[in-house]
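Researcher: Quick sanity check before group meeting.
Model: Go ahead. Protein one:
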Amino acid sequence: MLPKSQNSANLSEQFYHNGLEISPFIESIHQELLPHLEIESVEPYNPVVVHHLPQPWQLIGTGNYAGVFYHPNYIDLVVKIYAPGRLGWTEELEVYRRLGSHPAFSQCFYAEEGFLVLKRLYGVTLYDCLHRGLKIPPQVIKDIDQALKYIQEQGMYPHDVHGRNVMMYEGRGLVVDVSDFLREQPCRAWDDLKKAYYLIYLPFLYWLPLPIPYFILDLVRKSYRLFRRLTLRGV
C-alpha cells in the first residue's frame, strides 16, 4: 500500500482538452487500488512481483521498477505504480515532461509520488511476439530507431531498451518504458537487439515464425545480462 503524497504533478489540463476526464480514475486509484495492492521488488534485475490486485483492476505488465495497471471503466488510461523501495519516479516524470507528445511514446497526465497516470499504449511486446510466433516487420525496428533518436534530440539517453519494453502495434513500433532515459551511462541493449534482428531474425526466423517458449527467451535474456555485466567489468 502506498500513501497519498503531497508531492504531485497535475498534468491533466491537456488531457481534458482531448475530451477525457481523469478525476474519477484518480479517485479510483486512491480508494480501490492503492489500499489493497501488494507489489514487491524481489530482485533488482527482474520484474517486480504483484502479490495481490483488487478487482476489477487488471495487470498489464511489470518491469524492474513498477507494475502497470488498468481499470475496465477507463480503457485509455493506465497507472504505473512503483514498488516500495524502488527509486526513479522523479526521473521518469521528468522524462515525460521533456517528451511532450510523440506517436511512439505514452504521455503522462497526472502524477503523485510513487505513481504516474499515463495514456495507454496498445500492442504486443517484441518479447511476446517471439513467444507467439508473430512476424516483426522491419518498419517496427525503424520506428523505434527514430523514436530513440528523438529522445537524444531532447537531451536524453536511450537506456535499457530491450524486447520487453518496446511493442508492435499494427505494424508500427512503440517504446513503452522510458524510466531510465536520464541515465548517462552507455547502453548497448537496443544496438545489440537490432543487430540480432538483422543478422539472425530477419534472414531466418521472419520467414518461418515459430513460437519460442518463455523458458528459452528467459535463458537468452539472463545470458545476455550476464554477458554485458562481464563485458563492463573487462572480463
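Researcher: Fine. The other one?
Model: Protein two, sequence then structure:
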Amino acid sequence: MARGGYRLLKRCVAGELDVEMVLRSVGESGLFGAQGPAAMEWERVHREPTPRLMEACAGQDERSGGDRVLLQRNPHRCFEGLLIAAWAMGASHLRLMLVRGGHAALQAMLAAELVKLRRRRPYPGMPDIVLGCCDTQPRFEAGISRLRQGIETLYWVPDILDGGAEWFAAQRMRPRMEFA
C-alpha cells in the first residue's frame, strides 16, 4: 500500500469507479475467464441471489506454473484483482485456492501475505480472503452463488482499469508474462 498498491480497489470502493464502468472496461478489454468473457461471468453472478462466493484457483490447467509465478512475484496484485472482481460482482466470501500437493512454500508465503493484508485492510468491511486447496471437481455449497476465476485473469484486472481496455485489447491476445 505504501507503493500505491490497492489504489484501484480503493477507487472502486470510494465510488470513483462504479461497477458498470468496471464491467464495461473488463468487457471491452476482451479479458476471458474460465467460462468465457470475464465481465459476463461477473454480471451473471451479480444477478444471482446473495450470498455470493468468489474463488480464485491456481494450478488447474496447463498454465498453472504461470499462476504460481504470478502469485510468487506479486501476490498483492493478484489479491487486488480478486478483490476488485469480488466487489464488482458483490461477493462477500473469497477463497484463494491452490491445487493440492507440492506448494507448501507458496502456501506459507501467501498465508503470511494475507495476514499482512488483514492487518492493513485497504477499506473497512473488506471480506477476508481464505486460503485453501482446490479440487479438480468444484464443490457447490447449497444456497451460495459461486464464480471461479483463474489467477492470470484476475492479475490483469488492475492493469485494465489503469491502462484502459483499449490498451489490453490492442495486445491482440492477453499479454503474457515471461516466466524465466
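Researcher: One line on it for the slide.
Model: The longest strand covers residues 52-58.
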